[in-house]
Amino acid sequence: MRGDEMDHPTTLGRSSLKVPRLGVGAMTWGEPRGLARFHPATMAYGGAHGYQEESRAVEASLEAGVDLVDTAAFYSRGASEIRVGELAQGKDVLIASKFPSGIRFQADDFPGELEASLHRLGRSNLDLYQHHFPGRVSIPDLMNHLADAVGVGKVTAVGVSNYSAEQMRRAHAALADRGVPLASNQVEYSLLHRQPETNGVLDACRELGVTLIAYTPLAGGMLTGKYSAENRPTGFYRRVLPRYRRKALVAIQPVVSLLREIGDRHSKTPSQVALRWLIEDPIVLPIPGAKNGKQAIDNAAALSFSLAAEEVAALSDATRSRRA
Ligand SMILES: NC(=O)c1ccc[n+]([C@@H]2O[C@H](COP(=O)([O-])OP(=O)(O)OC[C@H]3O[C@@H](n4cnc5c(N)ncnc54)[C@H](OP(=O)(O)O)[C@@H]3O)[C@@H](O)[C@H]2O)c1
Predict the structure, then answer these.
(1) What CATH number does the domain containing 151 carry?
(2) Is 7 helix (H, G, I), strand (E, B) or coil?
(3) Quick check: 97 and 88 in contact, CB under 8 A?
(4) Cα gap 208→173, rounded to integer Å
(5) How much distance in Å is there from the Cα of 216 to the middle of ligand 1?
(6) Does some domain include residue 266?
(7) Where are the beta strands (DSSP E) in 133-267?
């Protein structure tokens, strides 16, 4: 691909929704109040950069052809959805959200969850609506509700998140009975977290024609190359989870060096190479979180180059142990 060329939009799975090959994750966005200030999505990465920077992230992404923003009712108790709704007002932005807003949820709560999300977003339709976490709720019952929402035009495409291959198959079958495609399964996938390749999810996506939306594609910033044992990331999650500890940061430096080496050949950053490794698989769509305009510009440029097959293989070989 020439430097000035972009990956063309594709459809999300076999749905009618035209999407770019990369989106923007808005998990940390918004201004939570009260107890929501202590929500995991707010605390995870050390706080948001505020309205102006989030606005720049949307503007920069749109300019680069990245018109898909991912949020969820759960994130900071709706504060992320509210911010995404404000920033998308009057613009051609595709919004992907997720339900439910909390952990106590039954299939019958679905219509109320959908209305509340549409209200926070200030929209009458959601481009992609995803079930955030599988739980005790019956998958066929839930898919029937989602198919109803598609039928009345409140939802364009149906997705799931954190579903196993087997759960995906059940959702796919239930939706197929109603003539609705399962468009996507959003799961964690990056060079440092390659389980979808071994747990059957990537294979099921390929077989069923479902897009794998890759969340945490920069491994929470670890693949950007800016963190090291001496310069550890901020935020509650990144302070307490083993995957962000000093030892883990030392262990990933060979991968970061390889990202840099390959990036230098293309005049690209480690983040762009890490995202590109995902995009080289046509059924994978990463949604890196961007806290500001600069990060959004950096991430969107992953669309304007290609990796050689040997470069993809070298990165895959260097992170083979991350498949387990
Ligand atoms: N479905 C689910 O269960 C689920 C779970 C988690 C996330 N998600 C979705 O996936 C999205 C992305 O995942 P994530 O935010 O967990 O992880 P990520 O995209 O791997 O990392 C995002 C963080 O990396 C840093 N960063 C991003 N771009 C950068 C750049 N170009 N240069 C330097 N630093 C950069 C920023 O933090 P710093 O600047 O502070 O380092 C940013 O907050 C979320 O927003 C959300 O929409 C979904």
Answers:
(1) 3.20.20.100
(2) coil
(3) no
(4) 10
(5) 5
(6) no
(7) 155-161, 182-188, 211-215
75, 129, 163, 244: the active-site residue: 75
**Does the residue 223 lie in any domain?**
no
Q: How far is CA 4 from the centre of its chain?
A: 25
Total domains present in the chain: 1
Q: How far is the CA of 317 from the centre of ligand 1 (A)?
A: 24
Identify the pLDDT of residue 64: 96
SS3 call for 222: helix
Per the structure, the complete domain to which residue 42 belongs is given by: 10-218+284-290
**Pairing verdict, β 10-11 and 18-19:** antiparallel
CA of 45 to the centre of ligand 1 (A): 8
- Residue type at position 78: G
Strands (E), 191-242: 211-215
Q: Which of 27, 56, 162 to mutate to test the pocket of ligand 1 (most atoms within 8 A of CB)?
A: 27
- Identify whether 127 is part of a domain: yes
135 phi/psi in degrees, rounded to 5: -150, -140
pLDDT digits (tens, 9 = 90+) for 263-316: 999 999 999 999 999 999 999 999 999 999 999 999 999 999 999 999 999 999
Cβ-in-10-Å burial (0-12, 13-18, 19+) of 247 comes to: exposed
Which residues are CB-neighbours of 262 under 8 A, at least 6 positions away?
A: 268, 273, 307, 311, 314, 315
> Which stretches of the chain drop beneath a pLDDT of 70?
1-6, 8
pLDDT at 138: 96
Residue 66 confidence (pLDDT): 97
- CB count, 10 Å around CB of 151? 12
Instruction: Put residue 216 in one of left, alpha, beta given phi > 0 → left and psi -120 to 50 → alpha.
Output: left
Residue type, 171: A
Q: Using the atom order of ligand 1, give the atom closest to the CA of residue 71.
A: 47
27 domain residue, yes or no: yes
Residues whose CB falls within 8 Å of the CB of residue 99, separated by 6 or more in sequence, listed in order: 72, 73, 105, 110, 113, 114, 117, 129, 130, 131, 132
Q: Whose CA is nearest to atom 13 of ligand 1?
A: 216
